[in-house]
């Protein structure tokens, strides 16, 4: 009995100690004291916050996301979608409410881990880059510059994109298919298995190169613009926007919207090329024309440069920006919601809000 009592008391002591430690961590967080090391629990919370941010932001703009992809890959000789409003009405009329959110399940299955990895990778990359910068400059209180934030964002984007690219590949095909498509992908795993068996494992990474190239300015600029705008506003405090050394939700949403607008405008042509390369090999894709510019046979691309050349040659430079308007309408709230949701969830979970200095 003595040994059992000892074990029981030890367990109670450990439980009390754990509760005390958690209370102290929460107290330190509220008082602005950053813990000396990042615990496993803190890492999980950060990943969870990033996943929630991605799922919430992408679901909020799912209809616009689907319309953007349909505009990017539609056949110019069989125009169905002529703009944002008309396109959404057409989808509603022909496929109903569920048609507006077709592919969103696959999209969220991809974007949740993608967003989690992206935000977490940005924080870790920022810490590493800041440490190297301080070592090189010999300045202990040096801060991240906009260029360094761009580099950290680029690293985060490449890591997240590469880790989840096959999901993005099949999401594009699930989004493009309609009720009249001769072959139907029944879901995420069916699409992955079908592409893998019929087109080979390399098909799951079609369009990866323009995706990675595009993610460097896109994600890099998103983080760089957002963080730099926030820092500038906190330092200058125009119109009294700063309250208690922090920006309100509305101002942070505006920073996120500006970041999204800049990033997507620069990277959008690469997104169009990526999406078209993903459709290669799928005979039921409503793609662009070949050779003489009149045939309705889907184009075949030998690579990213060839895809750019044929798109501009047969459809003009403007084809690189097909779907830009609905994408712009989508990106502004989506990026803003993602950044603010991430920070709010981290705040609720008691994780440090900013990259530690």
UniProtKB/TrEMBL annotation:
<dbReference type="InterPro" id="IPR023395">
    <property type="entry name" value="MCP_dom_sf"/>
</dbReference>
<feature type="repeat" description="Solcar">
    <location>
        <begin position="41"/>
        <end position="128"/>
    </location>
</feature>
<dbReference type="GO" id="GO:0055085">
    <property type="term" value="P:transmembrane transport"/>
</dbReference>
<keyword id="KW-1133">Transmembrane helix</keyword>
<dbReference type="InterPro" id="IPR018108">
    <property type="entry name" value="MCP_transmembrane"/>
</dbReference>
<feature type="repeat" description="Solcar">
    <location>
        <begin position="144"/>
        <end position="232"/>
    </location>
</feature>
<dbReference type="Pfam" id="PF00153">
    <property type="entry name" value="Mito_carr"/>
</dbReference>
<keyword id="KW-0472">Membrane</keyword>
<keyword id="KW-0677">Repeat</keyword>
<dbReference type="InterPro" id="IPR002067">
    <property type="entry name" value="MCP"/>
</dbReference>
<keyword id="KW-0813">Transport</keyword>
<keyword id="KW-0496">Mitochondrion</keyword>
<keyword id="KW-0999">Mitochondrion inner membrane</keyword>
<dbReference type="GO" id="GO:0005743">
    <property type="term" value="C:mitochondrial inner membrane"/>
</dbReference>
<feature type="repeat" description="Solcar">
    <location>
        <begin position="247"/>
        <end position="348"/>
    </location>
</feature>
<comment type="similarity">
    <text>Belongs to the mitochondrial carrier (TC 2.A.29) family.</text>
</comment>
<keyword id="KW-0812">Transmembrane</keyword>
<protein>
    <submittedName>
        <fullName>mitochondrial Adenine nucleotide transporter ADNT1-like</fullName>
    </submittedName>
</protein>
């Amino acid at each position: 009995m003595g040994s059992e009592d000892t074990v029981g008391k030890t367990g109670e002591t450990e439980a009390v100690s754990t509760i005390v430690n958690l209370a102290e961590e929460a107290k330190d967080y509220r008082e602005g004291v950053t813990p000396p090391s990042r615990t496993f629990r803190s890492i999980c919370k950060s990943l969870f916050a990033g996943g929630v941010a991605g799922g919430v932001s992408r679901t909020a703009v799912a209809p616009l996301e689907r319309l953007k992809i349909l505009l990017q890959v539609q056949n110019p000789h069989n125009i169905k979608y002529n703009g944002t409003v008309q396109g959404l009405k057409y989808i509603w009329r022909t496929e109903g409410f569920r048609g507006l959110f077709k592919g969103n399940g696959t999209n969220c299955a991809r974007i949740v881990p993608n967003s989690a990895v992206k935000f977490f990778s940005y924080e870790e990359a920022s810490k590493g880059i800041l440490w190297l910068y301080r070592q090189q400059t010999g300045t202990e209180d040096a801060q991240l510059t906009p260029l360094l934030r761009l580099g950290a964002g680029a690293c985060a984007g490449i890591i997240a994109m590469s880790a989840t690219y096959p999901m993005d590949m099949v999401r594009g095909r699930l989004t493009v298919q309609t009720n009249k498509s001769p072959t139907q992908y029944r879901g995420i795993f069916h699409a992955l298995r079908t592409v893998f068996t019929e087109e080979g494992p390399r098909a799951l990474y079609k369009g990866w190169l323009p995706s990675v190239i595009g993610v460097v300015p896109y994600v890099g600029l998103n983080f760089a613009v957002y963080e730099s705008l926030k820092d500038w506003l906190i330092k200058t405090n125009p119109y009294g926007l700063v309250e208690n050394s922090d920006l309100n939700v509305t101002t942070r949403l505006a920073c996120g919207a500006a970041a999204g607008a800049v990033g997507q405008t620069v990277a959008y042509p690469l997104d169009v090329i990526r999406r078209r390369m993903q459709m290669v090999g799928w005979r039921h894709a409503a793609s662009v024309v070949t050779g003489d510019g009149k045939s309705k046979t889907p184009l075949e691309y030998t690579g990213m440069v060839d895809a750019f050349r044929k798109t501009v040659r047969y459809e003009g430079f403007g084809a690189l920006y097909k779907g830009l308007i609905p994408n712009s309408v989508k990106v502004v709230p989506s990026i803003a919601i993602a950044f603010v949701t991430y920070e709010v969830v981290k705040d609720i979970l008691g994780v440090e809000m900013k990259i530690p200095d």
